[in-house]
Design brief:
It comes from Suillus subaureus. Keywords: Oxidoreductase, Signal. One of its GO terms (molecular function) is nucleotide binding. The protein has 379 residues and is α/β, with parallel strands linked by helices. It contains ten helices and 14 strands. It has an eight-stranded mixed β-sheet with strand order 8-9-10-7-11-12-13-14, covered by helices on one side. Helix 4 runs parallel beside helix 5 and helix 5 packs antiparallel against helix 10. The longest helix is centred in the last third of the chain and has 18 residues, at 344-361.
Length: 379
């Protein structure tokens, strides 16, 4: 197979764009990838100077890379195949919509939108323009996640029963400016949208994607949140997701996920525990990019009695962001409009869960933040 090059335009020059671009430039052969290569061809920021500074620092000063002072110029660049969007949450919808209408493939940072209605609008636009669109939930593409998924689907451990997962970061919120992305409701601040996708990704992988579930949506989502008095965004949020057997879909899975995220305390270890009928998988923190997991196998007929324990550790060059970029490149090369590993229905499920969690917690965005509104709910 000939080498396929995907040419990237980068939207925003913040920390997360720095991480993604640094990984894009890692030699793909170091991770066993020999069919694709990534090329950054344009960077857009609020000024040409900021874009050029980013190129100098993170794209090795490559003089072939265009520096633009507007995002529209990146969308219009004929040497750009795909757009990576790394702006704050509340800008994702507008940025992605503009890129899709320009017929560019899009990898949009998580959370992909502010609500499920915005996401459905973007998916419709992507299909209308026949371009690839995916949320950048990088965890799902990492080697550890793929291996854990294979182990779950093998049935060796029996059916999953309960998932415990947490992702928390102590941001020192008492010392943050009110305009910080974690505190500002105009930027979709709070724990649930910024940190919540990571406990949820392991729930989707272990439960929603499980063969016994038949892609059946949860039967119930229950949540509670503590909102910081500083700005009213959620500081600590816990949510329980229940999957129940469903005769109409053929699902036979009965399982729950107990998830949490906080922005005023550090994560604990293990970050994820998946408990099965015949054993347990414990995944080390940090849950967005774990490098080690342990499997406990129970003695036959003796639930909870450990027969043996295996630990797997992973190493690779880079920080793990490049695996999702490889997926985008292969999908674009093959003419696919969505990824099978992180398909549109999974992002929709994610945003529906977050919509429900915010509704139950009474966390509403300021007027005008949501560009596509959810149906009005009574009660």
């Amino acid at each position: 197979m000939s080498l396929f090059t995907l040419r990237w335009g980068i939207i925003s020059t913040g920390w997360i764009a720095e991480q993604v671009v640094s990984d894009l430039l890692v030699d793909p052969t170091t991770r066993g990838t020999n069919d694709i290569v990534h090329k950054v061809t344009a960077v857009g920021s609020r000024s040409v100077e900021k874009a050029q500074k980013f190129i100098n620092e993170f794209v090795n000063g490559d003089k072939t890379v265009k520096a633009y002072g507007t995002y529209d110029e990146v969308y219009a660049d004929k040497n750009v195949d795909a757009i990576y969007i790394g702006t704050p949450h509340t800008y994702h919808y507008t940025n992605a919509l503009d890129a899709l209408k320009a017929k560019k493939h899009v990898l949009c940072e998580k959370p992909v939108t502010c609500n499920a209605a915005e996401l459905r609008s973007l998916i419709a636009t992507a299909k209308e323009n026949e371009v690839f669109f995916m949320e950048a939930l990088w965890t799902r593409f990492q080697p550890l996640a793929k291996e854990v998924k294979e182990l779950i689907d093998s049935g060796t451990l029996g059916l999953p029963v309960i998932v415990h997962a947490d992702f928390s970061v102590d941001f020192g919120i008492d010392k943050l400016p009110l305009t910080h992305r974690m505190l500002d409701p105009k930027l979709g601040g709070g724990a649930i949208l910024d940190l919540g996708p990571y406990p949820l990704i392991w729930t989707i992988l272990a439960l929603y994607e499980h063969p016994a579930n038949k892609r059946t949506k949860p039967s119930n989502v229950t949540s509670t949140m503590y909102k910081t008095p500083i700005t009213g965004v959620d500081c600590n949020t816990s949510y329980i997701i229940t999957f129940s057997p469903n005769s109409s879909t053929g699902s036979t899975l009965a399982a729950q996920a107990v998830l949490s995220c906080s922005m005023n305390v550090a994560s604990h270890n293990p970050g994820v525990t998946i408990r099965f009928e015949k054993g347990t998988i414990m995944i080390d923190a940090p849950v967005p990019c774990p490098l080690r997991y342990t499997v406990q196998y129970f003695q036959e007929g003796k639930p909870g009695k450990i027969a043996r324990e295996d630990t797997r550790t992973f190493e690779y060059v880079g920080s793990g962001w490049h695996f999702q970029a490889d997926e985008v490149a292969r999908c674009v090369r093959d003419g696919k409009l969505e990824s099978e590993l992180w398909s549109h229905d999974k992002s929709i499920l994610e945003m529906e869960v977050f919509d429900e969690v915010r509704y139950q917690g009474g966390y509403k965005f300021p007027d005008g933040i949501e560009k596509v509104l959810l149906p009005v709910r009574c009660g």
